[in-house]
Queue: 2 jobs
Job 1
Amino acid sequence: MMPLAGRWLSSLAVRSGGHGVLFDCGEGTQIALREANWGFRAIDAICISHLHADHVGGLIGILFMLANSGREEAVDVYGPPGLVEIVKGQRLLAPILPFEVRCQELQPDERFSVGDLQLTCTQGEHLVTCLAYRVDLPRRPRFDPERARQLGLPVELWGKLQDGETVAWDGRAVKPEEVVGPPRRGLSLAYVTDTRPSDALASLATEVDLVVCDVTFGAPDDAARAVETKHMTFAEAAELARQAQAKRLWLTHFSPALPHPEEYLDSAWAHFPYTVLGHDGMRATLRFDE
Amino acid sequence: MMPLAGRWLSSLAVRSGGHGVLFDCGEGTQIALREANWGFRAIDAICISHLHADHVGGLIGILFMLANSGREEAVDVYGPPGLVEIVKGQRLLAPILPFEVRCQELQPDERFSVGDLQLTCTQGEHLVTCLAYRVDLPRRPRFDPERARQLGLPVELWGKLQDGETVAWDGRAVKPEEVVGPPRRGLSLAYVTDTRPSDALASLATEVDLVVCDVTFGAPDDAARAVETKHMTFAEAAELARQAQAKRLWLTHFSPALPHPEEYLDSAWAHFPYTVLGHDGMRATLRFDE
């Protein structure tokens, strides 16, 4: 909520196959992206969890950064109802940009995609409407080129079959299962911030590789304040990750009243051992299973 | 215009006698203020040079920072015409604050004060209306208590005399010059950004202790681009400081195309030797003459 030196505001950047998605963009996000030395131009979508300044204040900087990088392709901004008005207010400072900014106010469970990434959202439980997001990168099943050659299938049809389409060849319908293996697990992550835990959030985050989760409060004693201000404690976030059967949990969004969040890790580990503390500039590469 | 890692956007904070004034507040200013460990609550006024995002984008963060610091006293925001609408747009993200935000669109040469600080502004020459500011901290003349006692003046009247008022005492008018010394030089600084140099700016900055000045462009060869985009080169800023007979010059607002601004210092020193490069977190204490 309040940036500290070395502990800035919320933003998560995801990139895959030349496409990028930003989740929230607190003040300073463009600076952090520069420090991370990421390509800026490929931010195709910005997903806002909720319309509080600490999650939106860096939007105008990001739009200018994209403009300065030479981007001309449209940028999609997704978020809860009210988004359009807020972006309009911000854009008084950037009325002219070399690309279109398309705002879309999302309904819970709405689906959209950015490149190969498939996204959806669920409503959390905060003081204002707040969306948690899930990203999936599906993985195509293994294709058996030997079998395809045996069937005499031309290479032009291989991609369609791998994508799950039945194709007509040699006077008959060739089904995908004749040349592709069983479904394969893709990659996924969930971004959950400024909300109480809920079954809907656990369901959104089912079996994701990574959950990035708000833990404004540390000690189990702070549970009452977490309820009151609609945030989570370390234990609650870890329990959410356990319930979702996620693979990993990153904790973030610590209250400025928690100068040493590591003191509370034990309370998270009791629920979910694959929990680590987030820090500015933290990054990971998610890879398909072997 | 674009923040780099370790070289953020424009902001200058001035404090005196418990009062604070911020000149511009680019994105990240609240973070820089925290890193500087300054008192946040005492920012009584924010003076915006012009309504470009790189000079205003951190405003909402500053307002939240002030709110979180417990401030309840009104905050004045000064700037060029158009300010009110821009602040209104920003405040969609902060509709409720524990203090009043009073916006005032300034005319050139308008005067206002913040505590003991006296401020004025002059219009620069930029792509949009841009104001340069001057701050003066006047110094009261030396008071001669021995002489005051000889005249039998009660202590209650001393302050008025030192402030330049004539007082009635013992059946006659006692003039300030009877008990105070000659006028004394105060302290002053000028904040000049995003503008071409001009005689009006040199006049605004006359004999200031410090000019903080935009130098977007480095080499004298870039003079044409400086003219086109309405900024200054190192040489032009130094010449402005010379013309103003300023004491010191800090250069700032380097273009991202100048990774090594020190390469151009020679061209500034040729005009004004008391020139240094600004850097993030730079600070100085100005003191009255001995």
Job 2
Amino acid sequence: MNRQVILVSRPNGIAQADNFAIVEQPLEPLAEGQLRVRNRFLSVEPAMRGWIADAGNYSAPVPVGGVMRALAVGEVVESRCAGFSVGETMCGWFGWQQFATVAPDAVVRRVREDDLPASLALGVLGINGVTAHLALTRVGEPKVGETVLVSTAAGSVGSAVGQIAKIIGCRTVGIAGGPEKVAQCIEQFGYDAGIDYKCDDIEAALAAACPDGVDVYFDNTAGRISDAVYPHLALHSRVVVCGTAAIPAWDPWPNGPRVERHLLLKRARMQGFVIFDHMASYENSVGQLADWVRSGKLHYLEDVLDGLEACPDALAGLYRGENNGKRIIRLP
Amino acid sequence: MNRQVILVSRPNGIAQADNFAIVEQPLEPLAEGQLRVRNRFLSVEPAMRGWIADAGNYSAPVPVGGVMRALAVGEVVESRCAGFSVGETMCGWFGWQQFATVAPDAVVRRVREDDLPASLALGVLGINGVTAHLALTRVGEPKVGETVLVSTAAGSVGSAVGQIAKIIGCRTVGIAGGPEKVAQCIEQFGYDAGIDYKCDDIEAALAAACPDGVDVYFDNTAGRISDAVYPHLALHSRVVVCGTAAIPAWDPWPNGPRVERHLLLKRARMQGFVIFDHMASYENSVGQLADWVRSGKLHYLEDVLDGLEACPDALAGLYRGENNGKRIIRLP
């Protein structure tokens, strides 16, 4: 038998626990060309909100009644597919379920870093770390000595962005919610300065932390934090639009202060980044990230929940800010 | 005696005729290192609104009581400056006045195109043409076969953008106000399609004119036209933020539909362009533009007003949409 987390209704806004159900399904025999993976770690991503949403997105919406789309790490337990052997560890689009029966195109990569925890393939050595690395370097294009400002700075993408920017030689400033997360930014992720977005005067905090302006703004929020940041953009600065976590819904489409004047006056650039455009560089990026992890230059935090039962509320909990580090589900 | 147009009060919004006054001043003797230019053509630019505004801009505001800043073309009538000879034609920051007494850094360039009208140095062979050329190619980065959408498409920048995009091999769509300007876009500037932004349903018009989406949006407006365009951006599209003519004032700062989600979903880029960053490429660009003018590939329209008396209302008239082509003032 297989146990699966199914999307049972489409949420308006953030998916809550009751938008999902756990079901049991018999495991069908494997067809030619398929492989079966026993999942050990399931990922929980802020981007799942978009994968579920009915509105246009960069991937087709998860159908109601379908297994929740998710990256996962597991081992091949059965294979009728050349090039995949039982016992190999894979990271791929295996979904929120115990066993995944998939074609090889669901596999993102073989997990080869045997000296490091396999769960990292979902975080700092996975979509989060690779997004941080490639979005920062390709869209942000930080230069030595520049100020890099990161929103959701203690999150799984943001914390990697801050550390990679530091490795590149930038001054790093992290924005996070509450004094504990701000302290974490500085103590665990090496930010030069931290800003609590729940403070009374975020404008003054930004001006104090970024006296020469912001050269690279790596953003995962797109809400009032960004609105406060844009006036602080430096000449020829770059804004990496990597997520819109601060916007609960895009229907009705929300308004905000117009950005065009900032972009014109500062000759600044704003650009969206989605990792799916950069999969050809994934393996090289993981190799670089793994080296940084091994040499102690790149730290990570994992927020581990146990069992498939934790899945339904895990995404909502992420948006409630409960997690401390990359949220993953560990399966027995 | 010299006659000058002075800024007598700072407008809130668009400068009107009564924000200026015409005064007479005796011509002082030339100091060592100065040259005197007799202006023949004065420029009128939408960007003047920003040069006058008190708010931060890419140049210091014109002081109240000072001569209105403007590009002009004229001939050197007196020189105490090595390298500048009486009789040479110069384009530079000579201001709205009959005679300019300036240091050589006010000169933008010598006008060498003796076979073409000198006034073109203020339009298609000047800041407008060079802005169109460099902003389109460097920020817009159009590729053969792509759809390039231009707002203020019949204007002095926009009309050059549309024609240069056509030379590059793009499909061009122009947005302009009213059926006459739309017809002008197609008949005089070779756009493949035109959109009247005063029409009932600009969304439907955009969808019809850009069925594969917009690859490059060259914008001078930043208002409701842009708001309608953003949802039509194609994957990996580029928005050139060249002006904000549709926003009457930035105090209070106006709101509009948030752009971040479009940029993320389409992995699109928005970037500001100001010609002052690209002055090193000015001469090369003028050379290219002049070749296109000579070969009949690049057309232009001039809207000529006569005499210094026309200056005070000329900018307000531009924002009233009165001009038909690049507005210049001809002096006797």
